[in-house]
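Researcher: Going back to the complex we discussed earlier. I've cleaned up the inputs and rechecked each line, so this should be the final set. Can you rerun the prediction on the complete assembly and write out the structure?
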Amino acid sequence: MGRLRSLLIPGVDKQLLVRDATKLMPDLARRRFIAGGASLGALTLLTGCDVSDSFSAESMLTRISKFNDGVQAAIFSPNTLAPTFPESAITKPFPFNAYYALDDAPTIDGKDWKLEVRGLVDNKKSWTLEELYQLPQVKQVTRHICVEGWSAIGSWTGVPLRDFLKLVGADVRAKYCWFQCADVDGYNSPLDMASALHPQTQMTFKFGDEILPRAYGYPMKIRVPTKLGFKNPKYVISMEVTNDYKGGYWEDMGYNSFSGS
Amino acid sequence: MSSLAVNDQPAAAATTTKVIQPAWVRIVHWINAVAMVLMIMSGWQIYNASPLFDFTFSKSITLGGWLGGALLWHFAAMWLLMVNGLVYLILGLVTGRFRKKLLPITPEGVIADTRAALTGKLSHADLTKYNYVQKLLYAGIIVVGILIVLSGLAIWKPVQLQYLTALFGGYEVARYVHFFCMAAIVGFLVVHVALALLVPKSLRAMIIGR
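Model: Rerun complete. Updated structure for the full complex:
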């Protein structure tokens, strides 16, 4: 209990913390997932599908998830904006959520930090925080929806990612912007180019009009209101414009890669 | 014109060969049964990741093992549920089955048949005809089935389908609608399965048609 109490941070949802702690047990989960798959094998017998040795429910589910990526990309409208809300609707306190406790969140010195820009871009220069702060910023009050189901409304201010992509001469015909982060175990996540170019997709430097606090991703997060929360990486340290699917922290564990809202 | 010939058929033979559940009904029924069970069990696991109420579902009755696995199941089985459900709705409308089997539903009929059911006087002699309680429940569960799919789409795509989400009163309300539709379906399922077991010939009709 003492260990648990030491994890409690004011303004942080205790239940969410405990829940995230349970997520740190991938072994058991993995086994249960595959065990769940066995029953689908029985199901395919009933429906007369060919069951071969190479067939497993897990691979079939993965294939359907890829199919769902395509369906979602087709449904995605580049001009449909996520609903916005008045400031009075902002959720307070806004939850901290990660696969680790806030104590283990990256502590980044803004003076040393640089955003590395790689891949299919004309200008591969790294950007200091000060340089990024010079770029025109816009504010949005939108709903953040977690893959777990809960949602919260927040206020994020920053540079539209599409403006930055234009500035660095990115090849916007490339398939992905791939972000790497400073989180323990190296969080990363791919963002499809259509979503990266969406007018509300933002390199975020402020939450609620104040410099982004550590809990919410200091010094920079990518806010994508057309995606689930885990596709909104925090503590970003590099962006790569690429045609290769490089996977992501949660995507590799089975969360749907597109995960659009 | 040939009604004379039809009338000549012995009455007994006509009733024994009478199809109670046509093949298409049986096929979509059992596909729906599988899809519903997959959706409900994976849905419970998804619910557990962020419970709306002060309880969670036991892991022994959920599917997927963890949130990511459950989401894969849920978003795979949804295609089975939606496509099969659409086929059912279209065939139900164009064959006139809904109109013939489920309509009309009158309050007096429902009250009378509920009373008869509770006093053990409701007849199951003719399985091709639904009593008013059946009509109400079967029509009602179709509406709930449509609602659970629409509220699910509203939760899945609150930006792309934001007008649908708004129709449900927003993302958070749509989550509750989705949950209560599930509860209604589970409630229906309990009664439905119990009655099918109590009147085994109704179960037989849904398997072999007669």
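Model: Worth noting: Chain B has two domains: 22-49+61-95, 99-210.
Researcher: Good, that matches what I expected from the previous run.
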